[in-house]
User: Fold these one by one.
Assistant:
Number 1:
Amino acid sequence: MSLLREAALIAGKDLRIEARARVVGQQVVPFGLIVLLLFAFALDPDRGVLTRVAPGLFWVTVLLAVLLGVSRAFALEADNGARDALRMSGLDGSSIFLGKAGALAVELLAFEALLTLGVVVLFDVRLASLPPLILASAAATVGLAAAGTLYGVLAAGIRARETLVPMLLLPVVAPVLLGATRAWEASIDGVPGDAWPWVGLLVIFATLFVGIGMLAFGPLLEES
Amino acid sequence: MIDDGSALRSDRLMAPVARRVVGGLAVVTLVALVVVGLFVAPPDALQGDAQRLMYLHVPAAWLAYLAFGVTAVCSALYLWGRTRSLVWDRIAGASAELGVVFTGLTLLLGSLWGRPIWGVWWAWDARLVTTAVLFFLYLGYLALRRIPAALDVRAKRCGVAALIAFVDVPIVHFSVTWWRTLHQEATVFNPDLDVQIEGTMALALWLGVLSFTLLYVYLLDLRYRLEVLDEDRDERDLEAAIAERAHGAVPSAGTVGVGS
Amino acid sequence: MSLVVRLRSAVCLLGRFPALAGVDLDVAAGETVLLSGGNGAGKTTLLRLLAGLIPLERGEGTVLGVDLGADRRSHRRRIGLVGPETGCYDDLTVRENLEFASRAAGVGADAVDESMAAFDLGRLADVRHGRLSTGQRRRLALAAALARRPELFLLDEPHAGLDAPARSQLDRVLRETAADGRAVLIASHELDLVRPVADREVVLVNGQAAGVLPEGSPQAPAASQPSQPSQPTETPETPGIPEPPGRST
């Protein structure tokens, strides 16, 4: 079986489970919207502060959702000894990585779409130029999903993983927060020219972490 | 694998004599640094005595990068199949510990220096932000190292984490620099400019770099030795456990070999 | 007679505890071997070693022609391992779980129907794993291994939790498997249930193997160290190290 077909098998399995369990829909999305509300409480909603800092708040919220998504993606494999079954399955580590990261990226994109709606409605944000915004979001999401999946498997066998993953993952994805926020700002301000270099940075990050993940996931999955 | 049989396995990085010599030299150069840095070098024309913090800050920063560089190289050597040996993992871990200490020292000294000179404890200078992210990246690495696991499991896990951190540093540095430059707020302060100005100031800086490097080598060897002693104790426990498992519970089975 | 499993002085660690302390074992193609021994004797560890899930610490091991010391992954696709847990996903149905298992192993879709029929799971095809009873889960676990069409079955307490019809289904599957020339290792305490289908019994004692020849068996025991007919002894299951008298350190 080819790499991509194996990856599709894993991604299909993860997405089907997610569609059944509805954890993202019923818990993560409401969580994101509550965070947006809390930001409005913490910052002054009347003087345009929220509108100006909306891109940063958006991506900080996405980072928090990534932590939840990673935890969820590997909790699936911890139940009923599924992790051993996955190791016994004979599937290649690279394709398991691509499948799990791909499913996480799809879930994150759905989350981001709803969160964008929240930002537009609640923070009065106008999205001036969409193409760089969409491309930046896609590249950032792939990078976050890849890095998250990599640290998810790294910490999978560890009891303290719920606290360890944020500590390891957040500093690593700091450039993604920076790049995606700047690209959003430029897109909202209607100067897409400023956004493209950041899109480039996000693409480099995503490529790098997809590469590392494909190499390292298999060996890390073995070390439970 | 407790002992992978590699020729590289050794109980110590250098002979005890060598370690004592390095330690002694570190003490001598540190004393020289104190004398030159505090008394011989003149106070800076603009920054006054606060500038003397640079004699510690710059060497600490150099050492932080050296230590993390060593961690990255040793992690790669461990992960690379042909050079796989726990020697590399031990050096990587010991070096990362020292790197985190010296990164913390760099940030602390920079902050102490920034208060009188910049008027603030912290500035969103690209170099500062990168160093802070670096500090947290390797703090996470050390947290991972403290998780109990078989030695080869830990080595593999931490090796990957160290390489990710290493790959991430240029991206962090690049993005942060870019970010601050775009906002036209990049600071013009460059603490290294002074090196050109006064001979004794340069001497103090070089003494700092030399003494800190010697201290690093000394501490690295000491930490390595401690790690080996830890592993040896675990190994002895394991041998006893295998023997006990094979013979202990069944008294009549005393002649069965266990392939040791 | 080609060997499917060959172990020599195999040592395996669970954490710091040597769960296997020098096991010798040979299993030929088409052979069904019962692994017996008390709790903590190392039965489960031995199955996990053969599956490649835990590393061979010392000694030699070959499974399905693959040297465990060099590679413990490439033979996994050809193995059907049934452990204490099902390895299935709660939110997938019986059929979906079986399809995932067989597709991952690269086996045709008809294997799913065959394995469901073999363990009478047809009525439960659209029920999610999370809603199955314990016994139904055990049947699903066995079916999931069968759906991979493995060359070597590694079964850990397969009869536990099964009702009488399910036990006879399992017996039939085991006989058919042996007739196909595939090998089966069964770790079990249910000696009366397994002995009728087993060609041979290997007793594990304190992480070491001793071959036992069942009555009326045409085959000679292949396992070495037959000089060790020790009584199975209860040893602690946890990797704690008991303090023997007179320990020097």
Number 2:
Amino acid sequence: MVFRESEEIQELLASYVLGDLTPEEVASVNQLLDSHPELQTEVRCLQNTLGLIPLALPEAELPPTLGSRILQTASGRSTVRANRVGTRAKTRLGVIGTVAASVVVGFSFYSYRLHQQVVATQAELSQYKNAIALLRQPSNRLLALQGTSAIPAASGSLVVVPNAEAIVLTLQNLTPLPEGQVYRLWGVADGEKIYCGEFRPDSQGRALVKFPLDAEISDSSAVVITVEPSQRLSYPTGETVMTGSISL
Amino acid sequence: MMLSNQTDTEVFQSLRSGNLLALGILYERYGEVVYRVALRMLGNAQEAEDLTQEVFLSLLGSGIYDRRRGSMVVFLTTVTRSKAIDRHRQIRAQWQRIQRWFHSSSPESERALIDKVALKEMSCRVREAFAELSTTQQQVLEMAYYDGLSQSEISEELNMPIGTVKTHKRKGLLKLREILQDLVE
């Protein structure tokens, strides 16, 4: 093929990108691109132009839970990979993987929501970054938490981070509480309940909180979450809505 | 630096090293655009959701995004379109070429990322540019892009010679390329 005008080449490349050429024409454009590599830049620009066309579509409203579902599925896949690491540690890794994955997903939701609120405060984000850093500590202990018959759908994880003397709690499917009530986390040691901290979930029933780890609490073999009035009492009075015991 | 302030390429690399937060950030940046394309091409919300999920999960797979090949938004709209067309079992030769183009490994110069332009602003620009095309140019490009129709199918549907369809498509694309020059180069 002989091209006298650059315009002619442009048109040919446009049709090439649009997939409108015959196989013979495609072959000669491929030859042309081999002999004139600078034209590949033009092909790329045209490809980019084509790829931008859908931006002209009206903006759509994303289904509210889609992001969460994608992250959940993604974390499930990571767990599968973790399970393949080795046979000896398989079961153990699987359990840790699942708990860790759900914690990571918890953080992902948290991060996502923060951004939705137009990154309200940098402080909040750095807090969450700190929480992620905590999760990477080597000697962490993990507990899975499950709702009692009061809120059977509630679930989540608690990570004890001895190195940082902290507890990180991430929960989902909690029932939102009326004004004047809070959820409280208690460690159970020798049959006694020790206060760890209190929190309120967001409107979607999720919570991500960090509490200090006291020496007493680190001896706990189990934890419970109760619903309490917001004035501070040193012992639980309300219904136990979630429980978890140290299994790892 | 905080992940949310990083470029798409950095976030993508973070995802490749196993950080699922990075997936959340990419979703936050581009979930809407992917869903927008999926909804237009598949025509119903449920399928569009499934496809959006498929597109983002595909980012967990083998190394596919190469910024030297174009911006993340172009990459994602291209992948979305590919998968939507797959779903309709209408894979076109043109489409295979685009995929080859994304998978080929010939070196390209490093370029500024399009992602520094806010997506909303970019959508606005593309909308305005698209509105400058003639009605026929818009129509043939939409039929080819979203419905995956071939020249002869468009020709039949619009009762227009194939050569004319081809000319409208080409001129439409070249005009967009000219108006959007700074975004696509």
